[in-house]
Amino acid sequence: MTELSCERCGNQRAALDAAPFRDELGERIRRNICQTCWDEWLKRQMQLINHYALDVRTAEAREFLRRNVEAFLFGAGEADDIDTSQEGKITW
Ligand SMILES: [Zn+2]
Quick check: 73 and 29 in contact, CB under 8 A? Predict the structure, then answer.
């Protein structure tokens, strides 16, 4: 099992077996993010999908999740908050 020094949690942990996306971001995640943090993202992603009732087949939903995965794992850009006071304020 490959280990890496995770950019998000700072721990030496197991890496992902494969890049989660077939692009530069996926490769960046595979090289810099541990399995534990990725699992945390998957839970967060599920919360976002449920909260915003996202249809993951749409390009808009995928773009939304991409923006959030980057913010969640790398602290880049803006994460969309799961705050019910923000409901309806999401802009596609
Ligand atoms: Zn980590």
Answer: yes
